[in-house]
Specification:
Blueprint lengths: L4 E4 L8 H15 L5 H21 L5 H16 L5 H12 L9 H6 L5 E6 L3 H9 L9 E4 H4 L6 H11 L7 E5 L2 H11 L2 E5 L14 E3 L5 H5 L10
Parallel strand pairs: 1-2, 1-4, 2-3, 4-5, 5-6
Helix pairs in contact: 1-2, 1-4, 2-3, 3-4
Length: about 240
């Protein structure tokens, strides 16, 4: 087999982050006495939250700043008198309960027992580890590398160096990075010099210029790549 270690992203690769976020928003607004708040303010939240993650990838904001700033901006925009730090704390508690998986994730991982599996994910350590621990994938990974713990996030090469040290590996040609984000997972793997597999279930256009080693639409297509000795660029 070409690869010995497979590193996975978590959100929207193995876990359905959209469902987890929807659950957490509903619960936190409910906790703060606004049972319809998630539906009422979801669009505004997205407009406040999404750009901040781009700023995080570019190193313009820290994770600690992001977790409160998104709600500070939301409440300022909507004129809500809510303390953003406390709201964020409760939101993250509920987010950690979101163990929804992407279709095919359990079957895929169960068929990769011959490989060393690991996770590199941007986000909050306690939240991401809680989600994995509460899922059927709880014992699947040798290492779970979260950017908050590593002190650096994808696509920066430092988080991959941190992961390699934790995993005790040095050979890059035996490692494959799998993820849904071109700017984070694929760019990060490319920057570090390892092969990458872009999980692209919605058939998005590649507009950022980085070329993944492989591209798949369904998680189970990964098995054809890692079990084959022949090079494949794209599976549809």
């Amino acid at each position: 087999m070409k690869y010995e270690t497979i590193i996975f992203d978590i959100d929207d690769t193995l876990f359905d982050f959209g469902k987890a976020e929807e659950y957490a928003l509903h619960k936190v607004f409910q906790e703060f006495g606004m049972p319809s708040g998630a539906e009422q303010y979801r669009e505004s939240y997205e407009k406040c939250n999404k750009p901040l993650w781009g700023e995080l990838e570019q190193g313009h904001i820290t994770l600690e700043e992001l977790k409160v700033e998104r709600f500070r901006r939301l409440f300022l925009h909507e004129g809500l008198k809510i303390e953003p730090a406390e709201f964020s704390r409760v939101f993250l508690e509920f987010l950690g309960q979101g163990t929804y998986l992407v279709p095919g994730a359990v079957e895929l991982i169960s068929n990769l027992k011959d490989f060393q599996l690991a996770v590199i994910t941007n986000g909050f350590g306690e939240v991401q580890k809680s989600r994995i621990a509460g899922s059927p994938l709880a014992h699947a990974f040798k290492q779970i590398i979260v950017s908050e713990d590593a002190g650096v996030q994808k696509p920066q090469t430092g988080i991959f160096e941190y992961a390699f040290a934790k995993l005790g590996i040095s050979s890059k040609d035996k490692v494959l990075m799998v993820g849904d984000s071109l700017t984070s997972d694929i760019q990060g793997g490319f920057n570090f010099g390892i092969d990458t597999c872009w999980f692209n279930p919605h058939e998005k256009n590649n507009t950022n210029g980085v070329k993944p080693t492989y591209e798949i639409r369904d998680l189970l297509q990964l098995l054809k790549i890692v079990e084959s000795s022949e090079p494949v660029f794209s599976l549809s």
